[in-house]
Design brief:
87 residues, mainly alpha
Length: 87
């Protein structure tokens, strides 16, 4: 494997671990869906999947994770709006 291939695989596995950890933490009640940490874990994890999926030409996975990132970004924006309006 080339250094680039290793990096792409590492980014993909890191993304997978972040999304799994986020799910574990929300399922265990340690985070909520309104937690910025949870949303950031999903966004960064999805970025890893997008990079890995694009490299491997897995277009359905790449598209799904672009949408996943968008959902996380919208959630973060709404969380920030609620916090700003409550102060």
């Amino acid at each position: 494997m080339t250094p680039t291939e290793i990096a792409v695989e590492a980014v993909g596995w890191t993304g997978a671990l972040l999304i799994l950890l986020a799910y574990l933490l929300i399922s265990a009640g340690k985070l909520t869906g309104q937690s910025p940490v949870y949303q950031w874990m999903n966004i960064v994890g999805a970025v890893g999947f997008v990079i890995n999926g694009w490299w491997h030409r897995a277009i359905p996975s790449t598209a799904l994770n672009v949408v996943w990132m968008g959902i996380g970004a919208v959630a973060l924006w709404k969380i920030a709006q609620r916090r700003a309006s409550s102060t």
